[in-house]
Specification:
Blueprint: H1 2-7, H2 24-39, E1 45-49, H3 52-68, H4 70-75, E2 81-87, E3 90-93, E4 105-109
Parallel strand pairs: 1-4
Antiparallel strand pairs: 2-3, 3-4
Helix pairs in contact: 2-3
């Protein structure tokens, strides 16, 4: 599924229907976003939720995967955390464009500056 979404990232919408506790948030919110950042570390992404704290809490596992996961680091050895910009509201991975001030992933609620 990640491969299909990643290969066809043209704004097409997907609907994932599964019961509570089936892993939708982990699969898409952590797994897919980590994978797509690994594939395209030069791009910018957003993690939105109904409130800032919820988005920040959901962004933390993505940071943890990029920073600490051996399988992720094996699959994406060139995707390295930029620890000068590594906090709960957003983070950067190291990239070629050193002048790019924008985070790789920015997290926030629907009423925040992210939107």
């Amino acid at each position: 599924m990640c491969q299909d979404i990643g290969d066809n990232a043209s704004g097409q919408r997907y609907c994932i229907i599964a019961p509570p506790g089936a892993g939708k948030s982990v699969f898409i919110g952590v797994g897919f976003l980590s994978w797509i950042i690994g594939r395209n570390p030069e791009l910018h992404y957003g993690m939105l939720s109904y409130a800032d704290q919820v988005a920040w809490d959901r962004a933390k596992p993505i940071r943890d995967v990029i920073e600490k996961s051996s399988p992720f680091n094996y699959a994406f050895p060139d995707t390295v955390p930029d620890l000068t910009s590594w906090d709960r509201r957003g983070f950067r991975v190291q990239r070629e464009d050193l002048a790019d001030p924008h985070p790789t992933l920015r997290a926030g609620g629907i009423g925040s500056a992210v939107v």
